[in-house]
Protein backbone atom coordinates (compact mmCIF):
# COMPACT_ATOMS: atom_id res chain seq x y z
CA UNK A 1 0.00 0.00 0.00
CA UNK A 2 1.27 3.47 -0.85
CA UNK A 3 0.27 6.80 0.70
CA UNK A 4 -2.02 7.60 -2.23
CA UNK A 5 -4.02 4.43 -1.67
CA UNK A 6 -4.50 5.23 2.02
CA UNK A 7 -5.45 8.83 1.18
CA UNK A 8 -8.32 7.68 -1.05
CA UNK A 9 -9.53 5.34 1.73
CA UNK A 10 -11.28 6.35 4.94
CA UNK A 11 -9.53 3.53 6.85
CA UNK A 12 -5.88 3.09 7.81
CA UNK A 13 -3.66 0.08 8.41
CA UNK A 14 -3.83 -1.20 12.02
CA UNK A 15 -7.15 0.59 12.57
CA UNK A 16 -9.66 -1.39 14.60
CA UNK A 17 -13.21 -1.82 13.24
CA UNK A 18 -16.48 -3.54 13.99
CA UNK A 19 -18.02 -5.19 10.92
CA UNK A 20 -21.45 -6.72 11.47
CA UNK A 21 -20.67 -6.76 15.21
CA UNK A 22 -17.44 -8.75 14.65
CA UNK A 23 -14.28 -7.00 15.83
CA UNK A 24 -11.31 -6.88 13.46
CA UNK A 25 -8.14 -5.03 12.46
CA UNK A 26 -7.27 -3.49 9.08
CA UNK A 27 -4.05 -5.17 7.88
CA UNK A 28 -3.88 -4.16 4.23
CA UNK A 29 -5.17 -1.45 1.88
CA UNK A 30 -4.38 -1.89 -1.80
CA UNK A 31 -4.95 -4.01 -4.90
CA UNK A 32 -4.85 -7.79 -5.08
CA UNK A 33 -4.67 -10.22 -8.04
CA UNK A 34 -8.31 -11.18 -7.60
CA UNK A 35 -9.48 -7.55 -7.97
CA UNK A 36 -6.72 -5.68 -9.85
CA UNK A 37 -8.84 -2.60 -10.51
CA UNK A 38 -10.71 -2.30 -7.21
CA UNK A 39 -9.33 -1.20 -3.86
CA UNK A 40 -9.33 -4.06 -1.36
CA UNK A 41 -9.22 -4.05 2.42
CA UNK A 42 -7.40 -6.90 4.15
CA UNK A 43 -9.06 -7.74 7.46
CA UNK A 44 -7.81 -9.83 10.38
CA UNK A 45 -10.74 -10.98 12.52
CA UNK A 46 -10.58 -11.28 16.29
CA UNK A 47 -12.15 -14.73 15.95
CA UNK A 48 -9.63 -16.98 14.23
CA UNK A 49 -12.31 -19.25 12.73
CA UNK A 50 -13.84 -16.38 10.80
CA UNK A 51 -12.45 -15.64 7.35
CA UNK A 52 -11.28 -17.94 4.58
CA UNK A 53 -7.54 -17.20 4.38
CA UNK A 54 -4.50 -16.15 6.39
CA UNK A 55 -3.44 -13.17 4.30
CA UNK A 56 -2.22 -15.37 1.44
CA UNK A 57 -3.92 -15.50 -1.97
CA UNK A 58 -2.80 -17.87 -4.72
CA UNK A 59 0.49 -18.54 -2.87
CA UNK A 60 1.16 -14.80 -2.69
CA UNK A 61 1.45 -13.34 0.80
CA UNK A 62 -0.46 -10.06 0.71
CA UNK A 63 0.08 -9.42 4.42
CA UNK A 64 1.38 -11.43 7.35
CA UNK A 65 -1.31 -12.50 9.81
CA UNK A 66 -0.63 -11.71 13.46
CA UNK A 67 -1.85 -15.21 14.25
CA UNK A 68 1.17 -16.52 12.35
CA UNK A 69 3.56 -13.89 13.77
CA UNK A 70 2.62 -14.78 17.34
CA UNK A 71 2.33 -18.57 16.94
CA UNK A 72 4.72 -19.36 14.03
CA UNK A 73 2.07 -21.93 13.06
CA UNK A 74 1.91 -22.22 9.27
CA UNK A 75 -1.10 -24.51 9.61
CA UNK A 76 -3.36 -21.59 10.56
CA UNK A 77 -5.34 -21.01 7.36
CA UNK A 78 -8.18 -18.83 8.63
CA UNK A 79 -8.73 -15.59 10.52
CA UNK A 80 -8.46 -13.17 7.59
CA UNK A 81 -10.59 -11.86 4.72
CA UNK A 82 -10.36 -9.47 1.77
CA UNK A 83 -13.33 -7.17 1.20
CA UNK A 84 -13.86 -4.66 -1.59
CA UNK A 85 -13.56 -1.14 -0.23
CA UNK A 86 -16.66 0.04 -2.08
CA UNK A 87 -18.75 -2.64 -0.42
CA UNK A 88 -17.59 -1.58 3.05
CA UNK A 89 -18.48 2.08 2.59
CA UNK A 90 -21.62 1.75 0.44
CA UNK A 91 -24.81 2.82 2.19
CA UNK A 92 -26.64 -0.10 0.58
CA UNK A 93 -23.98 -2.63 1.55
CA UNK A 94 -24.66 -5.70 3.70
CA UNK A 95 -21.67 -4.65 5.82
CA UNK A 96 -22.42 -2.61 8.93
CA UNK A 97 -19.08 -0.94 9.64
CA UNK A 98 -18.41 0.98 12.86
CA UNK A 99 -15.26 2.79 13.93
CA UNK A 100 -14.03 3.54 17.42
CA UNK A 101 -15.37 6.20 19.76
CA UNK A 102 -13.67 7.98 22.62
CA UNK A 103 -13.82 6.85 26.24
CA UNK A 104 -16.03 9.67 27.52
CA UNK A 105 -18.50 9.33 24.65
CA UNK A 106 -18.96 5.65 25.53
CA UNK A 107 -19.20 6.47 29.23
CA UNK A 108 -21.90 9.08 28.66
CA UNK A 109 -23.83 6.83 26.27
CA UNK A 110 -23.97 4.02 28.79
CA UNK A 111 -24.26 5.78 32.14
CA UNK A 112 -26.22 8.96 31.38
CA UNK A 113 -29.85 9.48 30.45
CA UNK A 114 -30.08 11.27 27.10
CA UNK A 115 -32.79 13.58 28.48
CA UNK A 116 -30.21 15.13 30.80
CA UNK A 117 -28.04 16.39 27.91
CA UNK A 118 -28.15 19.63 25.96
CA UNK A 119 -26.98 20.04 22.39
CA UNK A 120 -24.75 23.09 22.61
CA UNK A 121 -21.47 22.85 20.71
CA UNK A 122 -18.29 23.25 22.71
CA UNK A 123 -14.80 21.81 22.52
CA UNK A 124 -13.23 19.03 24.59
CA UNK A 125 -9.60 20.02 24.14
CA UNK A 126 -9.60 20.82 20.43
CA UNK A 127 -12.50 18.57 19.51
CA UNK A 128 -16.27 18.69 19.86
CA UNK A 129 -17.45 15.95 22.23
CA UNK A 130 -20.79 14.59 21.03
CA UNK A 131 -22.13 18.17 21.04
CA UNK A 132 -22.03 18.24 24.86
CA UNK A 133 -20.89 21.46 26.44
CA UNK A 134 -17.68 21.17 28.46
CA UNK A 135 -19.42 22.57 31.52
CA UNK A 136 -22.12 19.96 31.02
CA UNK A 137 -19.47 17.28 30.67
CA UNK A 138 -17.91 18.31 33.99
CA UNK A 139 -21.36 18.27 35.60
CA UNK A 140 -22.01 14.78 34.26
CA UNK A 141 -18.57 13.65 35.36
CA UNK A 142 -19.30 14.74 38.92
CA UNK A 143 -21.68 11.77 39.03
CA UNK A 144 -19.11 9.47 37.45
CA UNK A 145 -16.68 10.31 40.23
CA UNK A 146 -18.84 8.30 42.62
CA UNK A 147 -18.80 5.13 40.53
CA UNK A 148 -16.76 2.22 41.99
CA UNK A 149 -17.19 0.14 38.80
CA UNK A 150 -17.37 1.07 35.13
CA UNK A 151 -18.04 -1.61 32.51
CA UNK A 152 -17.61 -0.59 28.87
CA UNK A 153 -17.36 -4.12 27.48
CA UNK A 154 -17.93 -4.19 23.69
CA UNK A 155 -18.74 -0.47 23.44
CA UNK A 156 -16.36 0.29 20.49
CA UNK A 157 -14.02 2.37 22.66
CA UNK A 158 -10.69 3.13 20.98
CA UNK A 159 -9.15 6.23 22.61
CA UNK A 160 -9.43 9.28 24.81
CA UNK A 161 -9.34 12.00 22.16
CA UNK A 162 -7.01 14.95 22.71
CA UNK A 163 -6.60 14.39 26.42
CA UNK A 164 -3.01 15.63 26.16
CA UNK A 165 -4.29 19.05 25.05
CA UNK A 166 -6.24 19.62 28.27
CA UNK A 167 -4.98 21.94 30.95
CA UNK A 168 -4.20 20.46 34.36
CA UNK A 169 -7.30 22.19 35.75
CA UNK A 170 -9.56 20.65 33.09
CA UNK A 171 -7.91 17.26 33.52
CA UNK A 172 -8.48 17.32 37.28
CA UNK A 173 -12.18 17.92 36.69
CA UNK A 174 -12.42 14.73 34.61
CA UNK A 175 -10.67 12.38 37.05
CA UNK A 176 -12.44 9.26 38.38
CA UNK A 177 -10.81 8.94 41.82
CA UNK A 178 -13.17 6.33 43.31
CA UNK A 179 -13.03 3.86 40.46
CA UNK A 180 -12.06 0.33 41.62
CA UNK A 181 -12.93 -1.77 38.57
CA UNK A 182 -12.67 -0.72 34.92
CA UNK A 183 -13.77 -3.16 32.22
CA UNK A 184 -12.59 -2.16 28.73
CA UNK A 185 -12.76 -5.66 27.26
CA UNK A 186 -13.67 -6.41 23.64
CA UNK A 187 -13.17 -2.91 22.28
CA UNK A 188 -11.19 -1.29 19.46
CA UNK A 189 -7.92 -0.36 21.13
CA UNK A 190 -4.82 -0.83 18.98
CA UNK A 191 -2.07 0.55 21.23
CA UNK A 192 -1.25 0.54 24.91
CA UNK A 193 -0.61 4.29 24.61
CA UNK A 194 -4.38 4.74 24.50
CA UNK A 195 -4.73 2.73 27.72
CA UNK A 196 -2.08 4.83 29.46
CA UNK A 197 -4.07 7.95 28.56
CA UNK A 198 -7.20 6.48 30.17
CA UNK A 199 -5.28 5.45 33.27
CA UNK A 200 -4.26 9.08 33.74
CA UNK A 201 -7.96 9.66 34.53
CA UNK A 202 -8.15 6.83 37.09
CA UNK A 203 -5.46 7.58 39.69
CA UNK A 204 -6.56 4.92 42.21
CA UNK A 205 -7.70 2.09 39.93
CA UNK A 206 -6.74 -1.44 41.21
CA UNK A 207 -8.57 -3.71 38.69
CA UNK A 208 -8.39 -3.39 34.89
CA UNK A 209 -9.75 -5.74 32.21
CA UNK A 210 -8.38 -5.26 28.67
CA UNK A 211 -9.39 -8.65 27.28
CA UNK A 212 -10.34 -8.99 23.64
CA UNK A 213 -8.45 -5.96 22.33
CA UNK A 214 -5.60 -6.11 19.80
CA UNK A 215 -2.52 -4.09 20.71
CA UNK A 216 -0.94 -4.23 17.26
CA UNK A 217 1.02 -1.00 17.78
CA UNK A 218 3.92 -0.91 20.21
CA UNK A 219 3.99 1.77 22.90
CA UNK A 220 5.73 4.96 21.78
CA UNK A 221 7.68 5.08 25.06
CA UNK A 222 9.22 1.82 26.25
CA UNK A 223 9.62 3.01 29.84
CA UNK A 224 7.15 5.40 31.41
CA UNK A 225 8.48 8.27 33.46
CA UNK A 226 5.89 7.52 36.13
CA UNK A 227 5.27 3.78 36.63
CA UNK A 228 1.71 2.51 37.08
CA UNK A 229 1.62 1.31 40.66
CA UNK A 230 -2.11 1.31 41.46
CA UNK A 231 -3.26 -1.44 39.09
CA UNK A 232 -2.83 -4.76 40.93
CA UNK A 233 -5.23 -6.98 38.95
CA UNK A 234 -4.81 -6.94 35.15
CA UNK A 235 -6.64 -9.17 32.66
CA UNK A 236 -5.20 -9.51 29.16
CA UNK A 237 -7.13 -12.52 27.89
CA UNK A 238 -7.47 -13.11 24.14
CA UNK A 239 -5.28 -10.16 23.14
CA UNK A 240 -2.94 -11.97 20.72
CA UNK A 241 -0.09 -10.39 22.63
CA UNK A 242 3.25 -9.51 21.14
CA UNK A 243 6.27 -9.99 23.36
CA UNK A 244 7.12 -6.27 23.25
CA UNK A 245 3.70 -5.31 24.60
CA UNK A 246 3.89 -7.89 27.39
CA UNK A 247 7.36 -6.73 28.38
CA UNK A 248 6.14 -3.11 28.42
CA UNK A 249 3.33 -4.14 30.79
CA UNK A 250 5.59 -6.10 33.13
CA UNK A 251 8.16 -3.30 33.25
CA UNK A 252 5.72 -0.42 33.74
CA UNK A 253 2.77 -1.91 35.65
CA UNK A 254 4.96 -2.39 38.70
CA UNK A 255 2.16 -2.94 41.24
CA UNK A 256 0.69 -6.07 39.61
CA UNK A 257 -0.28 -8.94 41.91
CA UNK A 258 -2.66 -10.80 39.59
CA UNK A 259 -2.03 -11.17 35.84
CA UNK A 260 -4.32 -13.03 33.43
CA UNK A 261 -2.69 -13.92 30.09
CA UNK A 262 -5.12 -16.67 29.03
CA UNK A 263 -6.07 -17.36 25.39
CA UNK A 264 -3.06 -15.66 23.81
CA UNK A 265 -1.37 -18.53 21.90
CA UNK A 266 1.56 -18.19 24.30
CA UNK A 267 4.26 -20.85 23.96
CA UNK A 268 7.19 -21.88 26.14
CA UNK A 269 9.57 -20.09 23.75
CA UNK A 270 7.53 -16.91 24.10
CA UNK A 271 7.74 -17.11 27.88
CA UNK A 272 11.44 -17.94 27.89
CA UNK A 273 12.18 -14.50 26.44
CA UNK A 274 11.04 -13.02 29.75
CA UNK A 275 14.14 -14.41 31.42
CA UNK A 276 16.97 -12.06 30.55
CA UNK A 277 20.06 -11.19 32.61
CA UNK A 278 19.20 -7.49 32.48
CA UNK A 279 15.56 -7.95 33.53
CA UNK A 280 14.75 -7.98 37.22
CA UNK A 281 12.37 -10.66 38.54
CA UNK A 282 8.70 -9.68 38.60
CA UNK A 283 8.52 -10.22 42.32
CA UNK A 284 5.14 -8.58 42.98
CA UNK A 285 3.09 -10.99 40.87
CA UNK A 286 1.48 -13.68 43.01
CA UNK A 287 -1.20 -15.04 40.64
CA UNK A 288 -0.60 -15.87 36.96
CA UNK A 289 -3.22 -17.28 34.57
CA UNK A 290 -1.76 -18.92 31.45
CA UNK A 291 -4.72 -21.14 30.62
CA UNK A 292 -5.83 -21.87 27.04
CA UNK A 293 -2.44 -21.25 25.45
CA UNK A 294 0.09 -23.35 23.48
CA UNK A 295 2.33 -24.43 26.37
CA UNK A 296 3.61 -28.00 25.99
CA UNK A 297 5.74 -28.37 29.13
CA UNK A 298 5.87 -26.89 32.58
CA UNK A 299 7.85 -23.62 32.20
CA UNK A 300 10.12 -24.07 35.22
CA UNK A 301 11.96 -20.80 34.52
CA UNK A 302 8.78 -18.94 35.42
CA UNK A 303 9.44 -19.58 39.08
CA UNK A 304 12.68 -17.63 38.84
CA UNK A 305 11.09 -14.78 36.90
CA UNK A 306 8.15 -14.71 39.34
CA UNK A 307 9.79 -15.71 42.65
CA UNK A 308 6.68 -15.02 44.78
CA UNK A 309 4.20 -16.77 42.51
CA UNK A 310 1.62 -18.59 44.64
CA UNK A 311 -1.22 -19.29 42.15
CA UNK A 312 -0.57 -20.64 38.64
CA UNK A 313 -3.29 -21.64 36.17
CA UNK A 314 -2.00 -23.75 33.25
CA UNK A 315 -5.27 -25.46 32.37
CA UNK A 316 -6.23 -26.23 28.77
CA UNK A 317 -2.71 -26.40 27.38
CA UNK A 318 -0.70 -29.35 25.98
CA UNK A 319 1.57 -30.00 28.94
CA UNK A 320 3.42 -33.25 29.51
CA UNK A 321 5.26 -33.05 32.81
CA UNK A 322 8.97 -33.62 33.06
CA UNK A 323 11.42 -32.45 35.68
CA UNK A 324 13.68 -29.45 34.97
CA UNK A 325 16.91 -30.56 33.26
CA UNK A 326 15.34 -34.00 32.83
CA UNK A 327 17.57 -34.58 29.82
CA UNK A 328 20.59 -34.54 32.12
CA UNK A 329 21.28 -38.16 33.11
CA UNK A 330 23.53 -37.03 35.96
CA UNK A 331 20.87 -34.88 37.64
CA UNK A 332 20.89 -35.14 41.42
CA UNK A 333 17.26 -35.01 42.49
CA UNK A 334 18.30 -34.15 46.03
CA UNK A 335 20.07 -31.04 44.80
CA UNK A 336 17.42 -29.30 42.69
CA UNK A 337 15.47 -26.10 43.22
CA UNK A 338 12.29 -26.49 45.25
CA UNK A 339 9.55 -23.92 44.65
CA UNK A 340 8.02 -23.23 48.05
CA UNK A 341 5.93 -20.21 47.11
CA UNK A 342 3.40 -22.06 44.92
CA UNK A 343 0.25 -23.12 46.80
CA UNK A 344 -2.35 -23.41 44.00
CA UNK A 345 -1.68 -25.18 40.67
CA UNK A 346 -4.24 -25.85 37.93
CA UNK A 347 -3.13 -28.45 35.36
CA UNK A 348 -6.57 -29.63 34.26
CA UNK A 349 -7.17 -30.46 30.58
CA UNK A 350 -3.56 -31.07 29.58
CA UNK A 351 -1.72 -34.19 28.35
CA UNK A 352 -0.60 -35.66 31.69
CA UNK A 353 -0.81 -39.42 31.30
CA UNK A 354 1.67 -41.02 33.71
CA UNK A 355 1.41 -41.45 37.46
CA UNK A 356 5.06 -40.50 37.98
CA UNK A 357 4.20 -37.00 36.72
CA UNK A 358 2.33 -36.53 40.00
CA UNK A 359 5.51 -37.40 41.88
CA UNK A 360 7.24 -34.51 40.12
CA UNK A 361 4.54 -32.11 41.33
CA UNK A 362 4.81 -33.35 44.91
CA UNK A 363 8.61 -33.16 44.88
CA UNK A 364 9.07 -29.65 43.54
CA UNK A 365 6.12 -27.88 45.19
CA UNK A 366 6.50 -28.54 48.90
CA UNK A 367 3.73 -26.17 49.99
CA UNK A 368 1.13 -26.98 47.36
CA UNK A 369 -2.35 -26.78 48.94
CA UNK A 370 -4.65 -27.04 45.93
CA UNK A 371 -4.16 -29.08 42.75
CA UNK A 372 -6.50 -29.39 39.78
CA UNK A 373 -5.62 -32.24 37.44
CA UNK A 374 -8.97 -33.42 36.09
CA UNK A 375 -9.60 -34.11 32.37
CA UNK A 376 -6.09 -35.32 31.61
CA UNK A 377 -5.39 -38.64 29.82
CA UNK A 378 -4.32 -40.01 33.21
CA UNK A 379 -7.79 -39.55 34.70
CA UNK A 380 -9.64 -40.29 31.46
CA UNK A 381 -7.80 -43.60 30.95
CA UNK A 382 -8.29 -44.47 34.61
CA UNK A 383 -12.03 -44.00 34.16
CA UNK A 384 -12.12 -46.22 31.07
CA UNK A 385 -10.21 -48.96 32.90
CA UNK A 386 -12.48 -48.51 35.92
CA UNK A 387 -15.59 -49.04 33.78
CA UNK A 388 -14.08 -52.09 32.10
CA UNK A 389 -12.91 -53.59 35.39
CA UNK A 390 -16.37 -53.16 36.89
CA UNK A 391 -18.08 -54.37 33.68
CA UNK A 392 -20.03 -51.14 33.43
CA UNK A 393 -21.56 -50.32 30.06
CA UNK A 394 -23.46 -47.17 31.03
CA UNK A 395 -21.23 -44.60 32.71
CA UNK A 396 -23.99 -41.99 33.06
CA UNK A 397 -25.27 -43.43 36.31
CA UNK A 398 -24.74 -40.97 39.18
CA UNK A 399 -23.66 -43.63 41.66
CA UNK A 400 -21.13 -45.03 39.18
CA UNK A 401 -19.74 -41.55 38.58
CA UNK A 402 -19.46 -40.95 42.32
CA UNK A 403 -17.66 -44.25 42.83
CA UNK A 404 -15.19 -43.42 40.05
CA UNK A 405 -14.55 -39.95 41.50
CA UNK A 406 -13.90 -41.49 44.92
CA UNK A 407 -11.44 -44.01 43.50
CA UNK A 408 -9.46 -41.57 41.34
CA UNK A 409 -9.46 -39.16 44.29
CA UNK A 410 -7.82 -41.79 46.49
CA UNK A 411 -5.35 -42.89 43.82
CA UNK A 412 -4.10 -39.34 43.40
CA UNK A 413 -3.93 -38.07 46.97
CA UNK A 414 -1.89 -40.98 48.37
CA UNK A 415 0.99 -39.74 46.20
CA UNK A 416 1.01 -36.35 47.94
CA UNK A 417 2.25 -35.12 51.28
CA UNK A 418 -0.14 -33.87 53.94
CA UNK A 419 0.17 -30.25 52.76
CA UNK A 420 -2.26 -30.92 49.89
CA UNK A 421 -5.65 -29.78 51.19
CA UNK A 422 -7.78 -29.66 48.04
CA UNK A 423 -7.94 -31.76 44.85
CA UNK A 424 -9.99 -30.74 41.81
CA UNK A 425 -11.95 -28.32 43.98
CA UNK A 426 -12.81 -30.88 46.69
CA UNK A 427 -11.43 -30.54 50.21
CA UNK A 428 -9.17 -33.30 51.55
CA UNK A 429 -9.69 -33.89 55.26
CA UNK A 430 -7.38 -35.79 57.58
CA UNK A 431 -9.51 -38.93 57.50
CA UNK A 432 -9.61 -39.03 53.70
CA UNK A 433 -5.85 -38.59 53.54
CA UNK A 434 -5.32 -41.41 56.05
CA UNK A 435 -7.75 -43.67 54.24
CA UNK A 436 -5.95 -43.01 50.94
CA UNK A 437 -2.70 -44.11 52.58
CA UNK A 438 -4.39 -47.24 53.93
CA UNK A 439 -5.86 -47.93 50.51
CA UNK A 440 -2.43 -47.70 48.90
CA UNK A 441 -0.77 -49.92 51.49
CA UNK A 442 -3.43 -52.61 51.16
CA UNK A 443 -3.23 -52.46 47.36
CA UNK A 444 0.55 -52.59 47.50
CA UNK A 445 0.48 -55.69 49.69
CA UNK A 446 -2.10 -57.34 47.46
CA UNK A 447 -0.02 -56.60 44.37
CA UNK A 448 3.10 -57.76 46.17
CA UNK A 449 1.42 -61.05 47.00
CA UNK A 450 0.35 -61.51 43.37
CA UNK A 451 3.86 -60.60 42.25
CA UNK A 452 5.44 -63.21 44.51
CA UNK A 453 2.96 -65.97 43.76
CA UNK A 454 2.30 -65.40 40.05
CA UNK A 455 5.06 -63.00 38.99
CA UNK A 456 2.43 -60.46 37.92
CA UNK A 457 3.38 -56.90 37.02
CA UNK A 458 2.78 -54.04 39.43
CA UNK A 459 0.32 -51.41 38.18
CA UNK A 460 2.07 -48.13 37.41
CA UNK A 461 -0.12 -46.20 39.82
CA UNK A 462 1.32 -48.17 42.77
CA UNK A 463 4.95 -47.53 41.86
CA UNK A 464 6.78 -44.35 42.77
CA UNK A 465 9.35 -42.73 40.51
CA UNK A 466 12.65 -41.18 41.61
CA UNK A 467 10.72 -38.05 42.52
CA UNK A 468 8.42 -40.12 44.70
CA UNK A 469 11.21 -41.19 47.04
CA UNK A 470 10.33 -38.62 49.68
CA UNK A 471 6.71 -39.75 49.78
CA UNK A 472 7.68 -43.43 49.62
CA UNK A 473 10.08 -43.02 52.56
CA UNK A 474 7.26 -41.53 54.60
CA UNK A 475 4.92 -44.43 53.87
CA UNK A 476 7.59 -46.98 54.78
CA UNK A 477 8.25 -45.31 58.13
CA UNK A 478 4.62 -44.52 58.91
CA UNK A 479 3.23 -47.99 58.16
CA UNK A 480 6.26 -50.19 58.89
CA UNK A 481 6.79 -51.61 55.42
CA UNK A 482 10.37 -52.65 56.10
CA UNK A 483 9.51 -56.38 56.16
CA UNK A 484 8.43 -55.98 52.53
CA UNK A 485 11.36 -53.86 51.43
CA UNK A 486 14.56 -55.17 52.97
CA UNK A 487 17.48 -52.77 52.87
CA UNK A 488 15.26 -50.27 51.06
CA UNK A 489 17.19 -47.30 52.39
CA UNK A 490 20.23 -48.38 50.39
CA UNK A 491 18.33 -48.73 47.13
CA UNK A 492 18.04 -45.94 44.52
CA UNK A 493 15.24 -47.34 42.39
CA UNK A 494 14.35 -46.03 38.94
CA UNK A 495 11.04 -45.13 37.30
CA UNK A 496 8.68 -48.11 37.25
CA UNK A 497 11.49 -50.61 37.93
CA UNK A 498 9.90 -53.07 40.33
CA UNK A 499 13.03 -55.22 40.56
CA UNK A 500 14.86 -52.36 42.26
CA UNK A 501 12.41 -52.48 45.16
CA UNK A 502 14.54 -55.37 46.45
CA UNK A 503 11.46 -57.02 47.92
CA UNK A 504 12.11 -59.81 50.38
CA UNK A 505 10.64 -63.05 49.10
CA UNK A 506 8.92 -64.08 52.31
CA UNK A 507 5.19 -64.77 52.14
CA UNK A 508 4.88 -64.93 55.92
CA UNK A 509 5.45 -61.20 56.15
CA UNK A 510 2.36 -60.65 54.04
CA UNK A 511 -0.07 -62.31 56.36
CA UNK A 512 1.25 -61.66 59.84
CA UNK A 513 -1.03 -58.63 60.28
CA UNK A 514 -4.04 -60.20 58.51
CA UNK A 515 -6.69 -61.60 60.88
CA UNK A 516 -10.25 -62.91 60.63
CA UNK A 517 -12.93 -61.46 62.87
CA UNK A 518 -16.55 -62.44 63.49
CA UNK A 519 -18.93 -59.55 62.98
CA UNK A 520 -22.41 -59.18 64.49
CA UNK A 521 -24.22 -56.25 62.93
CA UNK A 522 -27.37 -54.98 64.73
CA UNK A 523 -29.83 -53.06 62.53
CA UNK A 524 -33.55 -52.51 63.13
CA UNK A 525 -33.90 -55.40 65.61
CA UNK A 526 -32.13 -57.76 63.24
CA UNK A 527 -28.66 -59.29 63.54
CA UNK A 528 -26.50 -59.86 60.48
CA UNK A 529 -23.37 -62.00 60.79
CA UNK A 530 -20.06 -62.48 59.02
CA UNK A 531 -17.81 -65.22 60.41
CA UNK A 532 -14.71 -64.62 58.28
CA UNK A 533 -14.23 -60.85 58.04
CA UNK A 534 -10.58 -60.38 56.98
CA UNK A 535 -8.67 -57.22 57.80
CA UNK A 536 -5.08 -55.92 57.96
CA UNK A 537 -4.80 -54.69 61.52
CA UNK A 538 -1.78 -52.39 61.15
CA UNK A 539 -3.08 -50.35 58.21
CA UNK A 540 -6.77 -49.98 59.09
CA UNK A 541 -8.16 -47.37 61.45
CA UNK A 542 -11.56 -47.43 63.16
CA UNK A 543 -13.14 -45.05 60.64
CA UNK A 544 -12.03 -47.25 57.76
CA UNK A 545 -13.16 -50.32 59.72
CA UNK A 546 -16.71 -48.96 60.00
CA UNK A 547 -16.76 -48.19 56.30
CA UNK A 548 -15.56 -51.68 55.36
CA UNK A 549 -18.24 -53.31 57.49
CA UNK A 550 -21.00 -51.18 55.97
CA UNK A 551 -19.72 -51.93 52.46
CA UNK A 552 -19.69 -55.63 53.27
CA UNK A 553 -23.39 -55.44 54.12
CA UNK A 554 -24.12 -53.06 51.20
CA UNK A 555 -25.21 -50.43 53.73
CA UNK A 556 -22.67 -47.70 53.09
CA UNK A 557 -25.47 -45.20 52.26
CA UNK A 558 -26.96 -45.37 55.75
CA UNK A 559 -23.90 -43.87 57.42
CA UNK A 560 -25.36 -40.35 57.29
CA UNK A 561 -28.60 -41.49 58.96
CA UNK A 562 -27.24 -43.65 61.77
CA UNK A 563 -24.80 -43.38 64.59
CA UNK A 564 -22.49 -46.38 64.45
CA UNK A 565 -21.08 -47.84 67.66
CA UNK A 566 -18.56 -50.66 67.84
CA UNK A 567 -18.09 -52.98 70.81
CA UNK A 568 -15.63 -55.80 71.34
CA UNK A 569 -15.13 -58.61 73.85
CA UNK A 570 -12.05 -59.31 75.92
CA UNK A 571 -12.76 -62.46 77.89
CA UNK A 572 -16.13 -61.85 79.54
CA UNK A 573 -15.91 -58.05 79.38
CA UNK A 574 -17.62 -55.88 76.81
CA UNK A 575 -15.86 -52.64 75.68
CA UNK A 576 -17.01 -49.75 73.47
CA UNK A 577 -14.70 -48.08 70.98
CA UNK A 578 -15.20 -44.38 71.65
CA UNK A 579 -16.03 -41.95 68.83
CA UNK A 580 -12.85 -39.96 69.48
CA UNK A 581 -10.82 -43.07 68.60
CA UNK A 582 -11.79 -43.05 64.92
CA UNK A 583 -8.20 -42.58 63.74
CA UNK A 584 -6.73 -45.25 66.01
CA UNK A 585 -5.34 -48.31 64.29
CA UNK A 586 -7.13 -51.65 64.68
CA UNK A 587 -3.74 -52.99 65.69
CA UNK A 588 -3.97 -50.98 68.95
CA UNK A 589 -6.78 -53.25 70.21
CA UNK A 590 -4.79 -56.52 69.98
CA UNK A 591 -7.59 -58.38 68.22
CA UNK A 592 -7.00 -62.07 67.51
CA UNK A 593 -8.40 -64.49 64.97
CA UNK A 594 -11.99 -65.34 65.81
CA UNK A 595 -12.65 -62.35 68.10
CA UNK A 596 -16.24 -61.08 68.06
CA UNK A 597 -17.00 -57.49 67.08
CA UNK A 598 -20.53 -56.19 67.63
CA UNK A 599 -21.78 -53.19 65.68
CA UNK A 600 -24.89 -51.32 66.86
CA UNK A 601 -26.78 -48.64 64.95
CA UNK A 602 -28.82 -45.76 66.35
CA UNK A 603 -31.12 -43.83 64.00
CA UNK A 604 -30.33 -40.10 64.23
CA UNK A 605 -31.89 -38.54 61.11
UniProtKB/TrEMBL annotation:
SUPFAM superfamilies on file: Cap-Gly domain, RNI-like
Q: Which residues form the CAP-Gly domain?
A: 13-89
Query: Does the entry feature the keyword Repeat, yes or no?
Result: yes
- Protein name, entry field: CAP-Gly domain-containing protein
Q: Which UniProt keywords are present, listed alphabetically?
A: Leucine-rich repeat, Repeat
The record's GO CC annotations read: cytoplasm
Mind telling me which Gene3D superfamilies this protein's record contains? Answer: CAP Gly-rich-like domain, Ribonuclease Inhibitor
Query: Cross-referenced PANTHER family, in alphabetical order?
Result: PTHR48051, RAS SUPPRESSOR PROTEIN 1 (PTHR48051:SF1)
**UniProt keyword annotation of Magnesium present:** no
